[in-house]
Amino acid sequence: MLDAPTPGRKLVEVSDLKMYFPITAGIFRRRVGDVKAVDNVSFDIYEGETLGLVGESGCGKSTCGRVILRLYEPTAGTIRIAGRDIAAAPQDELRRLRPTMQMVFQDPQASLNPRMTVAAIIGEPIDEHARLDKAARLARIYELMDQVGLNRNFANRYPHEFSGGQRQRIGIARALALNPKFIVCDEPIAALDVSIQAQVVNLLEELQDRLGLTYLFISHDLSMVRHIADRVAVMYLGQIAELGPRDALYAEPLHPYTQALLSAVPEPDPVVEATRRRVILTGDVPSPANPPKGCNFSTRCPKVMAICREVEPAFREIVPGRFAACHLHSDTDSNTTAGQTAAPEAPRSTQQGE
Question: Which is nearest to 321 in space by CA: 238, 223, 222, 254?
Fold first, then answer.
């Protein structure tokens, strides 16, 4: 297992991470291209914090989480957890590191084996990685069920006998079985009713406080991410568009895509909702197999400039603790590189009031 990190230090370090899926064609299945699901992604997660990863469907959020845990083999980049290089670890070493990093999957129905009882599902990681006798194993299973709010009398029942929220609690208990330090929560509330969503999120927060867990919380629900996350990373077409502290990012987003996302979140105050302006994006998300030249968001951005279509913006620190990949925040000199003007073009999409 990994050494326990000291308080305040980086637990997870992801640098220049890429995950390309090959496109093949012909009878010989020759490689003719790549789907760039994750493309040059970099971020850190500190011990005890929750990093929210948000973005629209198909932007690469879930793939990024799976690659970090080496459920997919990364194409390039480095992944370090508690100082150990996960990306380059051979399979035998990776197996020894598994107890420290676990995952809660999106669909609790699909991620639980329907032929196994709750006790067998929760106890499977224990059987694989720990040497406990029968009594100690059962005691640990009961302890985990207590932690996630499941009745011990349900230990011999099967997944189809439970509600969606209860099934997700089983998945969380399984993830906690080996006392991990880092858990990837891949949209753990997406398949649940709204009332059950709050229960699961409150459970995750309670477990984090009690056990000192670190989360990568993947979701498209911006309101829920605002509730649970300490920092938020916004993803678009395989890349991180913006990253920063939760309150600052929600109050004053730096990237046009983040502004468009947040403008789509309804306001509970009907007066504010009736008068606020929304950013309406036109067009479809480009294919990750053929992303646009320059900035990935240039084909839909309401503030697009000439340089955006030619030069890919660097993901850099704009103000202390806040990062963005946008030419709007570049210096004037860099905006005029290669003969490009910094004056905005006529936008392809407009801002409209709703």
Answer: 254
| Distance separating alpha carbons of residues 215 and 172, to the nearest angstrom | 12
Assign 289 to helix, strand or coil.
Answer: coil
- Looking at residue 331, its pLDDT comes to 62
Length of the chain: 354
Report residue 342: phi and psi, to 5°: -90, 0
CA angle at residue 173 from 61 to 117, to 5 degrees? 110
Among candidates 6, 72, 17, which has minimal Cα distance to 233? 17
- Helix or strand run (H / E) with residue 217: strand 214-219
Q: Which two tokens stand for residue 191?
A: 């398949």
**Of 39, 64, 54, 66, nearest to 233 (Cα)?**
54
State the residue for tokens 């606020």. 276
Walking along the chain (354 residues) 10 residues at a time, the average pLDDT comes out as: 55 96 90 92 95 92 95 95 91 92 90 95 93 93 94 95 92 94 93 84 93 94 91 96 95 93 81 77 87 93 92 93 92 40 39 38
Bridging pattern class, strands 182-186 and 101-104: parallel
